[in-house]
Design brief:
two-stranded antiparallel sheet; mainly alpha; Glycosyltransferase; 13 helices; 286 residues; 4 strands
C-alpha cells in the first residue's frame, strides 16, 4: 500500500457532484471532501480539478453547510478553508467572505460553573450555532485564520485570535494534552487524546513558549503511536514535524496501518494518511 494506491482509492470514491462522502457511494460531506482536496493536492494532483466540488460547496451567508440541505459546521469550515488555500482555489462566495463569516460566529459564553474549573466565558468556536465552544472546532478555525489570513491580515480581528488561543490554553488537560471539549468535569480529570492534542498544537504553533504547549508536545511524543487510526497518526506526524520533533516511529506506524485504513474505506482517514505521506521533510503542514 503506497501513496499511489491511496490516491487511486480517493479518485475512485469521488461523487458526481465533485465531493466525497465518508464512504464510497455515500452523500458528499464537508469533512471528507476537504481532507480529500488537501490530500490530492499534496500528492501532486491538479488542485483546481480536485477541489472543483469544494469550490462550489453550498453555503449560507458565508458559512459552509456540512452537507447539501444541512446546517453550517464551523469546525469543518476551518478545515475547508485550509483545503481551498492549499489548492489555490476560490470558493464561489469568495474565500475572504468565508473567513469573515467564520470570525462572526462564536461559541456561547456561560457563567462560571461549580462542576468544572475552566473559564466558560471565553468564546472560541462551537461545531454549530448556539452551542458551547469546543477544543476541536476552535483549533480548526484558529489554524485556518492563521494559515489563510495573510492576504487579508488587516481584516482579521485580533480579538478572535487572542480568545481562541486563550480558550485552548485554558482547556489543557492536567499533565498535558487536550480532550475534545473540556479538561475536567464533575470533579474528574478528563483524558487527553492524540488527534486533539496534535491538532491543538498545530493551532498554537505561534505560542510555542506557553507551558501547556510544551506539556502537550511532551504528551504527544510519549503517546503518538498509541491511537492506531490513520487520522490520529497522520495528525501526530504533522504536529511533530511542525515542532521539529522526530516522526520516524509515528510514520512507520502509519504505514503499517494503511491496509486496515484502505479496507475500512473511510475517505477522511484515507485522505489524512495520504496528505501526511505526501509531505516532504521540509514542507510546511497546511
Amino acid at each position: 500500500m503506497n501513496t499511489k494506491d491511496l490516491t487511486n482509492l480517493l479518485i475512485a470514491g469521488r461523487n458526481a457532484d465533485g465531493g466525497w462522502g465518508y464512504y464510497r457511494h455515500k452523500t458528499s460531506r464537508l469533512e471528507p471532501t476537504s481532507w480529500a482536496v488537501l490530500a490530492l493536492t499534496a500528492a501532486g494532483q491538479d488542485g483546481a480539478a480536485a477541489g472543483a466540488g469544494l469550490g462550489q460547496w453550498p453555503a449560507r451567508a458565508g458559512l459552509l453547510l456540512e452537507r447539501a440541505g444541512g446546517e453550517p459546521n464551523y469546525g469543518f469550515q476551518g478545515l475547508a478553508l485550509l483545503a481551498l488555500h492549499a489548492a489555490a482555489l476560490e470558493h464561489r462566495a469568495g474565500n475572504r467572505a468565508l473567513l469573515d463569516a467564520l470570525q462572526r460566529v462564536k461559541g456561547v459564553a456561560l457563567e462560571p460553573s461549580p462542576i468544572n474549573r475552566q473559564d466558560n466565558g471565553i468564546q472560541g468556536w462551537s461545531w454549530i450555532a448556539d452551542t458551547f465552544s469546543w477544543v476541536e472546532p476552535t483549533a480548526w478555525c484558529l489554524l485556518a485564520l492563521n494559515t489563510c489570513a495573510p492576504p487579508w491580515r488587516a481584516q482579521i480581528d485580533p480579538v478572535r485570535i487572542r480568545d481562541a488561543e486563550r480558550l485552548l490554553v485554558d482547556r489543557s488537560c492536567l499533565g498535558g494534552g487536550w480532550n475534545y471539549g473540556n479538561s475536567n468535569m464533575l470533579g474528574q480529570e478528563l483524558a487527553p487524546y492524540v488527534p486533539t492534542t496534535a491538532l491543538t498544537l498545530l493551532a498554537l504553533r505561534d505560542r510555542r513558549g506557553e507551558r501547556v504547549v510544551t506539556e502537550g508536545l511532551e504528551f504527544l511524543e510519549r503517546h503518538a503511536t498509541s491511537e492506531r487510526s490513520a487520522t490520529a497518526l497522520a495528525l501526530a506526524s504533522c504536529a511533530l514535524r511542525t515542532y521539529g520533533r522526530a516522526t520516524a516511529a509515528v510514520m512507520a506506524a502509519l504505514r503499517r496501518q494503511l491496509p486496515i485504513t484502505a479496507a475500512l474505506g473511510n475517505h477522511a482517514a484515507v485522505a489524512a494518511a495520504l496528505y501526511t505521506l505526501s509531505q516532504g521533510d521540509g514542507d510546511a503542514t497546511f
